[in-house]
């Protein structure tokens, strides 16, 4: 999935720091989980705590982090006499409710927005409504519900008529958006541990959790994540929100992050570090973020054990398949400290 600040390309660098700095850790917390890429990667090694303020991210986490086995869908397969993915993708579309995505995000008599083709928008509504229907009829369990919903969410970006996020749609059709929606089957790593997922503000959650490694990957610029992924949030909740504006935005006042606000970010970051009951803290950031390297260093050193502060600057151009348009002076910053115990 295309996502602001995705860490797919930096996983090995994060792992390298952990191997060099951390011994005998058993728990890993990804407190700004996003697409849960980092949490999924480290699930093979640790008991995972993951969290994100956006509900669609929570759905992804429930399916691949908290869920610790690949669902077999035995009850629904017996009911359908076929595989549920095949049914959802290929069966005739029969809707039980108003098709919210079709009516608001594809070009037809109801809307001019062209995030999706009419065919794909209707298919999204059908799949979403069917998943709810199966859950209500107890034909799927909770793990299977989140797995199917997560598969739908992961599939949507591949047929979305956008440049990168859902803040705006393209005026002309991208050929990708005209392809037929195909559900993505997700890999689930089994680690046989009590992995936990949350859907709250990181600065609230930090008071309630503890562990060995805390990985912090906060927003680094003034772009709030909620409006950039509003359609995925609506598909996840399917709550028929009152939308507004050219892009059909859902209300997001309760999803705003202080990490996106210049005059609030230092205080939010400082409070997060201060209240963290974790021995090892890693922070991912950008050298073009609204917090400077010096500001981050000052906060971390305030709570670090002596001589444990460490910074790795990773040039984006190191990754050969990164777009040539990326600035040559753009770096990913990876900070590490061993934290002093809270007084």
From TrEMBL:
Keywords: Methyltransferase, S-adenosyl-L-methionine, Transferase. It catalyses: a 2'-deoxyadenosine in DNA + S-adenosyl-L-methionine = an N(6)-methyl-2'-deoxyadenosine in DNA + S-adenosyl-L-homocysteine + H(+). It comes from the Bacteria. GO terms for molecular function: nucleic acid binding; site-specific DNA-methyltransferase (adenine-specific) activity. PROSITE patterns: N6_MTASE. GO terms for biological process: DNA restriction-modification system; methylation. Its EC number is 2.1.1.72. SUPFAM superfamilies: S-adenosyl-L-methionine-dependent methyltransferases. InterPro entries: DNA_methylase_N6_adenine_CS, MeTrfase_D12, SAM-dependent_MTases_sf. This is site-specific DNA-methyltransferase (adenine-specific). It comes from Aliarcobacter butzleri.
